[in-house]
Amino acid sequence: MNINRKVQTLDEFTIQQRRDFPQATGELSMLLKDIALAAKRVNVEVNKAGLVDILGDAGEVNVQGEDVKKLDIFANNLFIGVTRHGVSCAGVGSEENDDIVVFDDPLSNNSKYVMLMDPLDGSGNIDVNVSIGTIFSIYRRVSEKGTPATIEDFLQPGNKQIAAGYIVYGSSTMLVYATRISVNGFTLDQTIGEFTLSHPDIRCPEEGKIYSVNHGNFWQFDEGIRKYINICQKKDKSNGGPYNQRYIGSMIADVHRNLIKGGIFMYPTTSDKPKGKLRLLYECNPLAYIIEKAGGKATNGTERILDIQPTELHQRSSLFIGSMKMMDELESYTRKVE
Ligand code: AHM
Predict the structure, then answer these.
(1) Which residue, 2, 160, 219, 262, has most beta carbons within 10 Å?
(2) Whose CA is nearest to atom 12 of ligand 1?
């Protein structure tokens, strides 16, 4: 059997990165390993979604007042279970839980990190075989080691993130994660059950030709946003031609594509949702961290996402995220109406 040793697994990659930091304890690598393990299990269930009774509403409504799909619950329980039994995580904040889940056992109380997550983003797409994802954000806890994690550990601004990432369950399953060093993508090799490095040192192109927004909300957007969208449509050949509009309704899939190809994703406030739809702590912050590390930009329209001081676990925000030059152009329109 011919084994290709150019292949680097996620574990090998994190061990290699750790060698550059002799003071590192390895807890972050362990946490990433736990996340990857849970992701592989979720991936199996996502792939079976059309076949088994896991499909469909679980008949519950989550803390945001949205229908909960069975797979959401499965993914939530799995990520919490795996991190609870690992050594690195003192607690989890999840879209699916009203309050933080504090592990509070002797091992976890001595763990260095807490994690925030959206266990299954884009869950409205499960039934129709469209890409969905998991988003996670990791912070060093601020509470004293040896004690249970507290809400303060979770209510830190995004600029304090230690690492952030997502898994996209799509035509292939990919885990992308960022640390302060770089952003790297790993594709799940189903034959060996390992995430393997496929997209080293991801950089978001400075410019792109894709804008992603829910056009159905167009007349609910502020005037500046509407003007920018018109500009996206009106560009002529001299300035790159009109942009393509792509909106999947799974933010992970939209932002992942724009990260690789260049583009801008927008979820502005609307008259129906004056605070925005997306959640700051486990949707906006991790993606903002990743895009900035890859050379892009993320704001809520006026403020850098990563500098917003959160006050609530399930806080909402507007989000504009993507290629640097497209973000700069957007801001020139949002500023004009201020
Ligand atoms: P979810 O957490 O319930 O899955 O909602 C988040 C999703 C994003 O993935 C997506 O970009 C957005 O909601 C779509 O919302 P809309 O249907 O309003 O355009």
Answers:
(1) 262
(2) 249
The CA-atom distances, in angstroms, between 292 and each of 22, 69, 289, 306, 337 are: 26, 32, 5, 9, 26
pLDDT in tens, 271-328: 999 999 999 999 999 999 999 999 999 999 999 999 999 999 999 999 999 999 999 9
Confidence (pTM):
0.92
- According to DSSP H, which parts of the chain are helical? 10-19, 27-47, 70-85, 151-154, 223-234, 251-261, 285-293, 324-336
Enumerate the domain spans of the chain: 10-199, 210-334
Residue whose CA is at the smallest distance from ligand 1 atom 17: 249
pLDDT tens, residue by residue, 191-208: 999 999 999 999 999 999
Cβ 277 under 6 angstroms from ligand 1 = yes
Q: Is the Cβ atom of 94 under 6 angstroms away from ligand 1? A: no
**Maximal CA-CA distance, the chain:** 65
- Our answer on whether the CB atom of 174 is closer than 6 Å to any ligand 1 atom is no
Task: State whether residue 121 is helix, strand or coil.
Answer: strand
The CB density around residue 106, as the number of other CB atoms within 10 Å, is 7
**Using one digit for the tens of pLDDT, what is the confidence trace for 59-115?**
666 676 666 568 889 999 999 999 999 999 999 999 999 999 999 999 999 999 999
CA of 168 relative to ligand 1 center, distance in Å: 14
Could you identify the atom of ligand 1 that is nearest to the CA of residue 122? 4
| Homologous superfamily in CATH for domain 10-199 | Fructose-1,6-Bisphosphatase, subunit A, domain 1 (3.30.540.10)
Ligand 1: which of 96, 264, 267 to mutate, judged by most atoms within 8 Å of the beta carbon?
Answer: 267
The residue-averaged pLDDT of 144-150 equals: 96
